[in-house]
Structures are given as structure tokens and as C-alpha cells.
Amino acid sequence: MQNRPAPEAVSEPLADWQSKRRPSDVPRARKCLCCHTQFESQWSGERICKRCQSATAWKQGWGAP
Hints:
Strands 1-2 form a two-stranded antiparallel ribbon. The relative contact order is 0.14. The protein is about 30% helix and about 10% strand. The chain is built from 4 helices and 2 strands; from the N terminus they run ααββαα. The chain has a domain at about 25-65. The chain is α+β, with helices and mostly antiparallel strands.
């Protein structure tokens, strides 16, 4: 069993974390993979807009609405 540091010792201020982001991982306009509308994604892996994520089908794991 490994000893892990206490959570408070691991946490970093948000500003420190944001300064360590990769250049490609910045907020920018992207096209939603479901409805194809432009939206402001907060990171490079966010490809589904909030409207589509709030759909019942998405919440139940059915994929695209």
C-alpha cells in the first residue's frame, strides 16, 4: 500500500493549474459533434455543447440526441 499525501498538500490554486495548461488546451470556439453549432468549449476535449449535454438522451447515456 502506498502512502499518499493529504488532499490539502496536493491541491493547487486554480491560477497555478491554468498556467500549466497546454497551449492547445485553451477555451475556444468549437463545433458541437451532435448539433454542429458553434459553442465556447472550456478545454480541448469538450466537444459537446451544453444544450446537447442537457438533453435527456445524453444524460441517460444514449449518445447524440
